[in-house]
Amino acid sequence: MARGFLVLLLIIAAAGCWDDDGPTDGGSGGEPDVIIGEGDAEGVGFQAFEEGGTAHLVGGPQGGYHFWFAARVRGLDPDGLVFVIQGFRDDLDGALANQFTTTILMVDSREDGYWQTAEPVTMILCPSPQGIGADDKDYRVSVTVRDSLGRSVEDEVEIHTVCPDDDRCATTCAGD
Predict the structure, then answer these.
(1) What is the pLDDT of residues 15-44, one digit of tens each?
(2) Which of 85, 99, 142, 175 has its CA 20 to 30 A from that of 36?
(3) What is the pTM of this model?
(4) How far apart are the C-alpha atoms of 73 and 35, rounded to whole Å?
């Protein structure tokens, strides 16, 4: 009797690990996709960037300005995703304003199989060591996302940065 109960428990447990396409593995099925967006200080917000959309600069604790980077990813294993994030100014011959590589915690967004960044990610744009301005400027934001299984996906979007209504941003982020 106990053996039959154990077999039944194993069958029930295994049933929870399969869907119509086979075993589930954290959203890694299907064609990989990434959507670049703007998040918030809590890391729970997400607004996909439209091409040429607005990125709202936010004052940071050390006096610089950034926007909250966020992304949604599907088709990759969400555990331990590595993001390579870059920001370029094409009007300055593709000058790199910021680049970093980081692992970002992801949560199920409950939308079409996408996983979403679950922590605030700052894309610092000014002041920049190169003197590249960030107030009222166009940037190309590029991201490459890799999972632990060696799969990757990339995307990029053109954004337009806007300073908040404060006295410091325009002068701190003037540059070129």
Answers:
(1) 443 333 333 444 545 789 999 999 999 988
(2) 175
(3) 0.80
(4) 7
